Amino acid sequence: MAKDSFNVGVIGLGTVGTGVARILLENGESIGRRAGIPIRLLRAADLDIARDRGLDFPEGVLVSDAGTVLDDSEIDVVVEVIGGVSPARTFIETALGNGKHVVTSNKEVVAKHGRGFLELARANGVNLYYEAAVGGGIPIVHALKNCLAANEIEQVFGIMNGTTNYILTKMHEERTEFESVLKEAQDLGYAEADPTADVDGYDVAYKLAILAGIAFNAHFSYEDIYFEGIRKISGEDVRIAEEMGYAIKLLAIGIRREGGVELRVHPAMIDRHHPLAAIEGSFNAVYVKGNYVDETMFYGPGAGALPTASAVVGDIIDLAMSRGLAGSHPSITTGFNDLPVLEMGEIRSQYFLRLRVKDQLGVLAGIGGICRDTKVSLKSVNQHTVSRTEAEIVLVTHTVREVAMQRALAGIRELETVLEVQNLIRVGL
Ligand code: HSE
What we know:
- By secondary structure, the protein is of the alpha/beta class.
- It has helices at 15-35, 66-70, 88-97, 107-124, 140-147, 162-174, 178-187, 196-199, 202-215, 235-243, 305-321, 363-373, 402-414; strands at residues 6-11, 39-45, 62-63, 77-80, 101-104, 128-129, 153-159, 226-227, 246-257, 260-271, 283-290, 294-301, 348-358, 378-385, 390-397, 400-401, 418-427.
- It folds into 3 domains: 6-136 and 306-332, NAD(P)-binding Rossmann-like Domain (Rossmann fold); 140-301, 2-Layer Sandwich (Dihydrodipicolinate Reductase, domain 2); 346-427, ACT domain (Alpha-Beta Plaits), CATH 3.30.70.260.
- The strands form 2 sheets. Strands 7, 8, 9, 10, 11, 12, 13, 14, 15, 16 and 17 form an 11-stranded mixed sheet that branches.
- Helix 4 links the parallel strand 5 and strand 6 (128-129).
- The longest helix has 21 residues, at 15-35.
- The model has no long low-confidence stretch (mean pLDDT 95).
- The structure holds L-homoserine (HSE).
- L-homoserine binds next to helix 6.
């Protein structure tokens, strides 16, 4: 007998989970009409079911035990929105093993265990969707997986973390330092109490591993991705970048090269006229360049309860619409490319280097000699006096190999005249 509803069980009523419940409860009727079948929130599990979430849950929906969701034979799709690896991984594996589809917004668990999940899903005739794991409300996963699948993707890059983009925007607008903006963002609830995943680049590395995997049809471990966060960016870096016509953004970059893929996450100075320079606050933007479509850009809210929940519910609707269609498991590719991640030392970039030096004869000659010996060609050099004995030097290089720049940097650090390497920031992509 055909089922009369597509039943959802949510695990985790935090920010995103509460948003999912709200959308299903508020907009369920319209969503059901679109899907061609009523979509019912059957269970919502959270350890704390007493908290007022401002929602009127129907009788029996709220449960405190995730097992109630995982073992309920009436549930078609389990929505995992608790985040982190443990116990999310076990919940996802149990749900897939029990023949339930899974929708998750959890980039960490997908980046670390997605391959195993997809194999398990295939073995059980179900699917795993994770649109909300990258770019919050921006439909970038589906776009890459389906709409752009005719292309060989050449580049995927952009701003994929709302918290750090918010911090960099504020540092630029208010001429403040990283620590004070971070504290303000935490006080306002925009940044997590433990900001490590966002500000140190882990969150973006997970997202890039997922997105590049889809774009280049391969599996990438986030551990093979070079990543840096934004902690070292100072107000002075932002100010000088502006003077030079650049904005500083935390970029995730995936580029198909001969023999492999460049995957990296780091702050970069980009031309202030580049469209990514205009992405402000917690918004995200992702560029995709395919051989047939050419350049496309996806822009929208990269974080937040309802934008993220809207992507989760979109996945649920997709699953509901494809229910019962033979072989309807579009996210489960069978033939992956075997593409190595290229060594970071092999990339080529321009570099901005800011140094505090002793203001004395021969300082520039020493630095210039090291750059010459390591084959780092300089594009511009600016020096200004800081005190009677100290000066600041800002160098910008031509495009050179990362390995050469790192050798030059090591040599410069050793110079007796160099008091401090204040920052090294890549310029451009
Ligand atoms: N913490 C993420 C961000 C949102 O700030 O973009 C979820 O991916």
